[in-house]
Each structure stands twice: as C-alpha cells, then as structure tokens.
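Interim report, section 4.2 (structural modelling).
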Amino acid sequence: DAKTTQPPSMDCAEGRAANLPCNHSTISGNEYVYWYRQIHSQGPQYIIHGLKNNETNEMASLIITEDRKSSTLILPHATLRDTAVYYCIALSQGGSEKLVFGKGTKLTVNP
Amino acid sequence: EPEVTQTPSHQVTQMGQEVILRCVPISNHLYFYWYRQILGQKVEFLVSFYNNEISEKSEIFDDQFSVERPDGSNFTLKIRSTKLEDSAMYFCASSKRSSLGPGWPYNQPQHFGDGTRLSIL
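Predicted structure of the assembly:
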C-alpha cells in the first residue's frame, strides 16, 4: 500500500473549516484513501473514504486531486470535540486488509 | 448506531499469566481484526480473521497469540504467557462484506472498539 505523508500538527479556530492535507504520490489506481481519527486514547474512528471522486458525509468532505496524488479532509465547522489525531491511510483492493497507521496529524481546535 | 464493544476496559495481569481480551463485533459484520497501540506509539495491526480462519497476521502475532470466535457474537484475543512488552491498548475492529461480492472487504471501513488497556506487572 502507498505511503502517505501528513503534517505532524495543525491548529484551527472553533467554528472555522479545518483542512487536513495528505500526500500519497505513489498511490495506485486500486487504492482507496481512508481517513480515521483518534481522540485521546479512544479507538480509531472511521471518518470517510474515497477512490477518485470527492466524497461527503455527515462528518466531513474528502477532496481527492485529479491525479490522486494528494487529498484533503475538510471538517466544515470544527468544534473543540474535533481535537484529535487524524490519519490518512491508503488501502488497496485485492491486497492486504490491514490498516497501516502512521503518525497522523494532531489537530487542535482552539476556542 | 451499532458499535464494537470490548471488555474489560482495563486488565492488569502478572507477567507469565494468560489473558483473554473480549470483543463483540457489530452484528452483521463478517471480518474481524485486532490492533494494538503501545503508549505513545502508532496503532499496529495484529491479525485479521474471516470465516473462522486467520486471513492475515503481522510479525507481532507470534505463537503466544491466538484468536477465536467461540460463538456467534464474541471474538477473542488470547495471549498465553504475557510479557512486560505486551502492555498496550488492544483494539478490536470489524467490517462487513462489500456489496460488490465476495473477497472485497477492503472497501468497507473497519469500525473500532474503544479498546482494552492491558497492563503487565
């Protein structure tokens, strides 16, 4: 599975949009981009995933560039409860089922 | 919303003792996983399980580890003779079969429980 690169930390003001970038320049055509987050020591929480089209659900939006080498997770109106470590993970079809977690981005939402 | 539940939330065990961590996956899910996270480190994959068989395991998952689905609802991780370095948070996860058909679990997200903190003394 492709390696992903994320900034180690980001800050965001409460109520503003949080845009979390992820680079996956070696991603292959059958690899999905998954986003999870981990609040303190809780279990990782699934947020969203996509292959090549932009995706939106009740939690967030996922914007994937046309060349699929990078993506951005958007939390439209960040709240203090969104403070967490966010993980971007590439996962292929036809390959391993395991999620490979990196260090992620520590997002701090400030009041 | 259905969720993965894990018990106990905290387990303290003497080194060398056996420990069993329990998980109840989401009811219509067919794929089950264990991950662990040593304090301050990354979440690491241990094992995946489908159709009563291990489908993949990591180097961490050695002969001291085993998994079992003893009935229709529970999924367990057993560590036979615990070591100090087994101290970690252990997370169970489950996912459902893709609607695309058999053999495609990876485009269905894994949902995690809140973990069991295992402390080895």
